[in-house]
Amino acid sequence: MIRRLAIVPARGGSKRIRNKNIKLFCGRPVITHTVDNLLKSKLFSKIHISTESKKIMNVCKKKIKFEFLRPKRLSGDKVRTMAVINHVVKKFEKMGEIYDEVWIVYPCSPLMETKDYKKISKLLKRFNYKKTVLTVCEYPAPIEVSYKIKMNNFLMPNKKSNFFKRTQDFKKFFYETGAVVAIPKKNFSDIKDRPNFNNLVPYVVERHKSIDINTLRDWNFAEMVYNSTFKI
Predict the structure, then answer these.
(1) Environment class of 16 (CB within 10 Å of its CB; exposed 0-12, middle 13-18, buried 19+)
(2) Each residue's pLDDT tens digit, 35-45
(3) What is residue 82's three-state secondary structure?
(4) For residue 8, what are the CA distances in angstroms to 29, 121, 230?
(5) What is the pLDDT of residues 47-87, one digit of tens each?
(6) Residues 192, 7: Cα–Cα separation, whole Å
């Protein structure tokens, strides 16, 4: 049986949205949407919230067991996520807990669903647990027909010749949504600050699931989408 560890990195020092990870999203703390979906999936041997915040701990411990808090030295806004993940994995290894997969599941992706996690697990299996799965979304418009704003506030095409081509002739490009990175054990030692870019496969999500909540405007938009998607 595959032993999966889900790590939800949720530090307490968010700046743009105060207490972002436990702010009420459609009536309940945003992080609990993620935790509930992870629990419902029944995929994980353990779900660990990596936080230094006792406020976040108190919200989440109603649902899952807390075994240790994140050290303060790994709680600054310039600390790389993989440093946090490595700390958790090594901590569990010292406790005699070894996992076949490590999933990084970000707390502010409330539009992800249990079925997404199940599909990601099937994707890992399909590639014989040799590839890392990254959630991505297709750019809504071809990036080849993009503009830049010059110093005089005028618009300038990045490549003028592209504007004489049909948009359907351009290749599709994708961006990382910041929802899930699912890493099989074989790949974990290769990961430093970022996943190994030669060993990734995509899990493509719908556009509404790719909303990156960084500002109150993002937050309000995500709530509107959530209400229209899940409360019809």
Answers:
(1) exposed
(2) 999 999 999 99
(3) helix
(4) 14, 17, 23
(5) 999 999 999 999 999 899 999 999 999 998 888 999 999 99
(6) 16
